[in-house]
Amino acid sequence: MTADSFPVPPSLSMEPLSKANHGPHPLLFKHLLSTLLEVLRLSTLALAISLEAIFILQKWKPIFHFLLLSIFLFIFIIEPYFLSSTPVYLVDFSCFKPPDFCKAPSSLFLENASKIGSFDKKSVAFMAKILTSSGLGEETYLPPALHCIPPKSHQQESIKEAEMVLLPIMEDLLSKTKISPRDIDILIVNCSGFCPSPSLSSIIINKFSMRDDVRNFSLSGMGCCAGAIAIDMAQNLLKVHKNSYAVVLSTEILSTGWYPGHERSKLLLNCGFRMGSAAILLTNKNEARKSSKYRLFSSVRTQRSFDDKSYMSAVREEDSEGKIGVTIHSDVFQLFGEVLRFNITILGAQILPPMEKFWHGVSTIRKRFFEKSREIYVPNFKSVIQHFCLPTSGRSLIREITKGLKLGENEDEAALMTLHRFGNQSSSSLWYEVAYMEAKGMIKKGDKVWVLGMGTGPKCCSLVWECLRPIVDESSKGPWADSIDRYPIMTAESKGLFP
Where are the transmembrane segments (predicted)? Predict the structure, then answer.
């Protein structure tokens, strides 16, 4: 593997895949069934209007009008109301702004790396190439433990880092929303690489003296997708526990994941990952609708860990010298493309207009059974969604997802600028993208925001949020307060310095 060849993901398409590549997949039938149901509902509406016109022209008795109106109300109002799930509202969220002494420009990173005895010149040169083409700017952050020479990666330093990134955002979220720690009913903390005992969620409960019956969970080993998965998990818990508050804390502890060896496939994580954390307050309380920023409109979670090749695409393991690191295989982004196609097929079946689903279904059947050389019709997600938060796992991945979904030039702005300003912050990056859009005044009442999380496994989780109220005065607070006026910037890629 070379710095020039990694990472370059293949183009993404909307073609649904077959399970284990054998025969048509159930997702195809689910997609077609959803389209048929939409067509049936519209046909019923057309029939009801036609019958009403006949009743009026024929001057039928009022009882017939009443019966027709009852059928209409049941199909289009009463039935959807009873079948709809418990609404989940996002009251507010906070993102961590690391202190300036944690800044790690490329020159400082490489200077320190050259002083660490475990790296040879080839390893430092390789990391330099990765940084040059990564899309990271010069103001990203590393924890204090990784500024030491050699870096400190023992347990106590990782706990200090966890407290550094989690406690301030929890306090900020409580201050913003004016709730007490004892009001919280559900607490979920996700961190992929660091799983201490007591757990991270227990640390939060202890520091904030939370209730003895708070339902707490710690998610580990789920990669960059863990933040979105934690929201999906909170949604399911809120369906069961009525009138509750749920807090999700997302972060990645970098000091425990530092790799001090020579294997290039393991050095990649040293270069791209940077400090970050986010805290999100969710609720199912009816009275929260007026004050909340967003409502969870749709949630879709998919994974491919059942497939051995996918399962082994990114693995934490020892190298030949016994040093632990995460091996990133060169085909990981191809596998990301596969799990993403699964995910957006289901999401499209849920949220796209009937005609978009119809034409996509027709083109899928045509390619699978008749004209294999024809391209699959890519539905226009912009007909439903106004804003896109894409994974910040690298500039190449952002570019390929944007291309695969046929998005415009501006739809990847939040992802590219977040990558440039803060780096890849794993599961919390998506919330820095939402914060960027809010600070720029992009999100309006009624807009929908697609938050797309992807991680090792591989797994994919889509969250679609509907904005419930005007978002104002966000440019002067949050992680972008001191830099939002400088963005968007002209990146090296847009200048044509990189292909």
Answer: 39-57, 64-83
d(CA 328, CA 315): 7
| CA-wise closest residue to 350 among 389, 379, 375 | 379
What b/e string do you get for 39-56 counting C-beta neighbours within 10 Å, with b at 16 or more?
A: eeeeeeeeebeebbeebe
At 233, is the secondary structure helix, strand, or coil? helix
The answer to whether 141 and 274 have CB atoms below 8 angstroms apart is yes
> Is 489 within 8 Å of 417 (Cβ atoms)?
yes
pLDDT tens track for 384-426? 999 999 999 888 889 988 988 888 878 999 999 999 999 999 9
Residue 436, CA atoms < 13 Å, CB-side half-sphere: 27
pLDDT digits (tens, 9 = 90+) for 329-366: 777 777 888 888 888 888 888 888 877 777 777 777 77
Contact residues for 494 (Cβ-Cβ < 8 A; gap 6+):
none
pTM of the model: 0.84
Tell me the CA distances in angstroms from 236 to 48, 93, 348, 424, 434, one per residue in order.
37, 19, 21, 28, 23
Distance of alpha carbon 200 from alpha carbon 216, whole angstroms:
10
Asked if 254 and 57 touch (Cβ cutoff 8 Å), the reply is: no
Interior CA angle at 160 toward 274 and 418, to 5°? 20
Q: What is the C-alpha separation between 249 and 231, in angstroms, rounded?
A: 10
Q: Whole-angstrom Cα distance, residue 480 to residue 478?
A: 6
Using an 8 Å Cβ cutoff, are 120 and 260 in contact?
no
The token duo for 264 is 């290039």
